[in-house]
Amino acid sequence: MEKIVSLCKRRGFIFQSSEIYGGLNGFWDYGPLGAELKRNIKECWWRSMTQLRDDVVGLDASIIMHPKIWEASGHTSTFSDLMVDCLLTKKRFRADQVEPQSGTAYFYTGVTDGTGAKESKDAFSVLIATGKHAEYARKVARQFYQQRGIENPALLGERTEEVKDSTRYNPENGGLLTEPRPFNLMLKTYVGPVESEDNKSYLRPETAQAIFVQFKNVLDVSRQRVPFGVCQIGKAFRNEINPRNFTFRSREFEQMELEFFIRPDEVIQKMTGAVALLSDPQPSTLNPQPTWGWELWHKYWVEQRIKWYESIGLGRDTLVEYWQKKDDLAHYAKATVDILFKFPFGTQELEGIAARGNFDLMQHQKFSGKSMEYFDEEAKAKYVPHVIEPSAGVDRLALALICNAYCEDQAPDEKGKLESRVVMKFHPRIAPIKVAVFPLLKNKPALVEKAKAVRDLLRPHMSVFYDEAGAIGRRYRRQDEAGTPFGVTVDFDTLGEKGPELRDTVTLRDRDTMKQERVKIGELVSMLLERIR
Ligand code: ATP
Fold first, then answer.
1. DSSP label of 378
2. Element (H, E) at 357
3. Which of 38, 44, 165, 466 could disulfide-pair with 100, CB 3.0 to 4.6 Å?
4. Quick one: 488 exposed, middle or buried, by C-beta within 10 A (0-12, 13-18, 19+)?
5. Strands 335-343, 346-357: parallel, antiparallel or unpaired by DSSP?
6. Summary mean pLDDT of the chain
């Protein structure tokens, strides 16, 4: 990870937000290459959802919405993580992320200050490794009581107990943590000139709710019929207790979410006589069928999403399909599959695909008083649609793609001597720059002019980087690090100096194999477009 983080800064993929002011924990900026990478991810997703299908339409909703939305969705009351604080340093942890500790716990019932003038009856305890000197625990305990205003604390009631796998102590200093208590993750703000309770609002913690509340409007204008979906890409904000693992857990991030509305199983049962189930022998999960209930639609979307990850270079071997256990599911969810990626810091969630029943639409119907019912002409039935929700994070995916692309291998330098190179093996579809154009030499005007003409030829079709500075090997290396899949070099053959048959041809270099082929300039656009689409 260290190498990846440093490459991200050095090459301009990701910078710390507000860096010159010391940074802001949980916020990140994307530099020139990172910005292109993110755009490509979003464009690929959008294209796969809207352009390549006829049953999904898009939405671009506001970040701040009516606060009642978050009451209806349950975010105001339940969107919280349990947190604990270190009683000594006040450092805050997510309760489920405290590393379990074993050792000897030293318990104290309180202290006096020696003169008897001051005392504290606050209980405190410290966990230290078994065999470590008791004095260490006492020192930590004294610090705790000193912070409570007792300068020379004499510890009272010391007793010890062997403890196994406890998450009640700060792994960094052994000090006791507070009892876990919920902490709402929504970021608050005020809308309008008065900072009153009535004007309190939230930055959306997910993009999905806007889709539910605009369900009827989209339905009215798009001429879609259930089953169909509405998708959205946009910023979301969560006041995460512990932002960590680089951009993996941030406080501001982007989501790509689809709400795919389907018929309730009862309606399908009535229409077709039987609902197809995942447990049926050899159920099709590829081509949607009118007999599909929520189970098969859910599995279908899991498959579709994994295929999409494959299409941008994340092989199935880098992903894990994790079916959440029944006990872990949210009360309204019928099933949830997480797609996990094998990050260098552990196998972690990229996307969640949930079968959410009709919980969200029903909640908004209840809270807004507006009907969310849909009349299905084909089924001759009125119902509130159910939904399958694939919900992915753009930033997590960008990080996964960067981790997946990072490679170190050997490449020959100018003189043919092998040297190690860092190469970002991005799939051409998402690579920030698609092709680099180089004149062999900078000081030969005819080469420079021709190379610039090639750049101008390619530019309307793809992102091109023109580079004439330094030895050609160095220029290749720079593009390898940026993950540019193709390099075009204009040399003396291009000018026809070795005979007319090579005139107007260039070398096309492949980043991964480093192989070079001779290509006609006139064929470059179509050849490259084919390889980057
Ligand atoms: P986690 O359990 O990791 O907090 P979650 O299950 O709460 O995630 P969802 O609410 O399902 O996440 O959000 C959908 C997607 O949004 C996640 O799969 C992830 O890609 C992205 N996401 C959620 N929280 C963050 C975050 N703090 N930083 C970056 N991406 C996030």
1. T
2. strand 346-357
3. 165
4. buried
5. antiparallel
6. 94
What letters, b where the CB count within 10 A reaches 16 and e where it falls short, cover 465-477? bbbbeeebeebbb
Residues paired with 270 in a beta bridge: none
Q: Ligand 1: distance of its center to the CA of 70 in Å?
A: 17
Q: Is the predicted pLDDT of residue 113 greater than 90, yes or no?
A: no
pLDDT at residue 182, as a whole number: 86
Nearest CA among 76, 63, 388 for reference residue 254: 63
- The helix (H) or strand (E) run that includes residue 398 is helix 394-405
Alpha carbon distance 487, 476 (integer Å): 7
Cα separations in angstroms, 200 against 66, 69, 189, 312? 10, 13, 6, 41
**For 134-185, what is each residue's pLDDT tens digit?**
999 999 999 999 998 898 899 999 999 999 999 999 999 999 999 998 888 9
Distance from C-alpha of 67 to C-alpha of 198, rounded to nearest angstrom: 10
CB 477 within 8 A of CB 487: no
Omega before 227 cis (within 30°)? yes
> What's the gap between Cα 82 and its chain centre?
22
Other CB atoms within a 10 A radius of the CB of residue 138 amount to: 17
**In contact, 81 and 185? CB cutoff 8 Å:** yes
CA distance 108 to 160: 9
Q: Which protein residue has the closest C-alpha to ligand 1 atom 26?
A: 249
DSSP 50: I
- Give the integer Cα–Cα distance in Å for 464 and 487: 10
Residue the block writes with tokens 């007999």: 291
pLDDT digits (tens, 9 = 90+) for 89-106: 989 898 988 999 999 999
**Ligand 1, atom 12, residue with closest C-alpha:** 352
Which atom of ligand 1 is nearest to 240's Cα?
27
User: CB neighbours (10 Å) of residue 261?
Assistant: 26
Compute the distance from residue 393 Cα to the ligand 1 centre, in Å. 7
Specify the residue with its C-alpha closest to ligand 1, atom 10: 206
Distance, CA of 95 to CA of 330 (rounded, Å) = 19
Report CA 301 to chain centroid distance, whole Å: 18
